[in-house]
Amino acid sequence: MGELTDKAKGLGNEIAGNIKQAAGRASNDPRLQAEGIEQERRGEAQNLKGKVKGALGDKV
């Protein structure tokens, strides 16, 4: 995957994770909130991967 693909997927996971966290808080569901935190972190990692690929020229 290229830099932009990784960044886009990362952003999508961050957004979905934030939504899950909010839903978990609103419904008092700690499991859903934890899933949201995990998904947000996964998205942050994907975004970082995209930034590294951009810096190294997509050769990673």
TrEMBL record:
Gene3D superfamilies: YjbJ. Residues 20-60 are annotated as: Disordered. Residues 6-56 form the CsbD-like domain. Pfam families: CsbD. Belongs to the UPF0337 (CsbD) family. This is CsbD family protein.
